[in-house]
């Protein structure tokens, strides 16, 4: 079963963008009268019937809403440093969306090796992962922001920073996060957070948490954080 995306579902009759239209008509060979599933990325999913099978402007009409399975009782926001290799941060976005994440912020840290990122590409990856995993809510991808700016972000919920502190026994993730809690998690660059950034995080009520005994790559740490939150909420 395929899921399609259109951000404009305000009216009963709507038109897919060119990319989605081509996928529906040219790739999947859908015709006039076919029933397909569509989401607006805002938590709603519908059955829709194709009215005009045009590969540039495929038009359809909404028939009825259908139940969604990705509703969550928590909000997950991960601020993660872009990796030197673009493919690794793209992999993180794809897998995080599949697991379930509400918001991603590229975080520019003192030790960051990459400070520019193609947000449009990450958004396309997020849309593709949303459709592939049959989710009704599109993850928000923010513009890159410096650590100093981001650390003052208002957030209602647990604020955690993934950092290995070998002299502390109270950093286990499960001891610092509980089911149904909103979570804002910081994940650092390949060179890790600086000591100054750690102190800034502490002053802004972020708790240090460990993601395990292994030393993880940035993208693996981000996915592991998603997995911890996903697992605890099952």
Structure commentary:
- The protein is an alpha/beta fold and 234 residues long.
- The chain folds into two domains: 3-65, Ribosomal Protein L25, Chain P (Beta Barrel), CATH 2.40.240.20; 76-232, SPOUT methyltransferase, trefoil knot domain (Alpha/beta knot), CATH 3.40.1280.10.
- 30% of the residues lie in helices and 23% in strands.
- It has helices spanning 18-27, 86-99, 119-132, 147-150, 173-176, 195-203, 218-232; strands at residues 3-5, 13-15, 35-39, 45-52, 59-65, 76-80, 103-108, 140-141, 145-146, 158-162, 183-187, 207-209.
- The model has no long low-confidence stretch (mean pLDDT 93).
**Helical proportion, percent range:** 25-40%
Q: H/E series, N to C?
A: EEHEEEEHEHEEHEHEHEH
Instruction: Please name the CATH topology of the largest domain.
Output: Alpha/beta knot
Low-confidence stretches: none
In total, how many beta strands?
12
Count structural domains.
2
Mean pLDDT, as a whole number?
93
CATH architecture of the largest domain: 3-Layer(aba) Sandwich
Distance between the termini: 25 Å
Query: What characterizes the major β-sheet?
Result: 7 strands, parallel
- Enumerate how many helices there are, as a single number: 7
CATH class of the largest domain: Alpha Beta
Residues in β-strands, percent: 15-25%
Determine the CATH superfamily of the largest domain.
SPOUT methyltransferase, trefoil knot domain
Class based on secondary structure composition and strand pairing: alpha/beta
Q: If you compute it from the alpha carbons, what radius of gyration comes out, rounded to the nearest whole angstrom?
A: 20 Å
Q: Give the overall silhouette.
A: elongated
């Amino acid at each position: 079963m395929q899921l399609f995306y259109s951000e404009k579902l305000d009216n009963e009759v709507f038109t897919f963008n060119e990319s989605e239209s081509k996928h529906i008509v040219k790739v999947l060979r859908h015709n006039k009268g076919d029933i397909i599933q569509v989401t607006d990325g805002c938590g709603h999913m519908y059955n829709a019937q194709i009215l005009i099978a045009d590969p540039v402007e495929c038009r359809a009409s909404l028939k009825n809403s259908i139940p969604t399975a990705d509703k969550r009782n928590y909000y997950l926001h991960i601020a993660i440093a872009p990796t030197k290799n673009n493919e690794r941060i793209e992999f993180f976005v794809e897998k995080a969306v599949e697991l379930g994440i509400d918001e991603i912020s590229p975080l520019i840290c003192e030790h960051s090796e990459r400070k520019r990122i193609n947000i449009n590409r990450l958004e396309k990856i997020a849309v593709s992962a949303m459709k592939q995993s049959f989710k009704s809510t599109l993850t928000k991808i923010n513009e890159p922001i410096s650590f100093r700016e981001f650390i003052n972000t208002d957030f209602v919920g647990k604020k955690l920073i993934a950092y290995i502190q070998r002299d502390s026994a109270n950093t286990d993730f499960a001891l610092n996060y509980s089911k149904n809690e909103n979570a804002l998690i910081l994940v650092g660059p390949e060179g890790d957070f600086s000591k100054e950034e750690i102190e800034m995080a502490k002053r802004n009520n972020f708790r240090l948490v460990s993601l395990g005994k292994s030393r993880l790559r940035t993208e693996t740490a981000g996915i592991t954080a998603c997995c911890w939150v996903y697992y605890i909420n099952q």
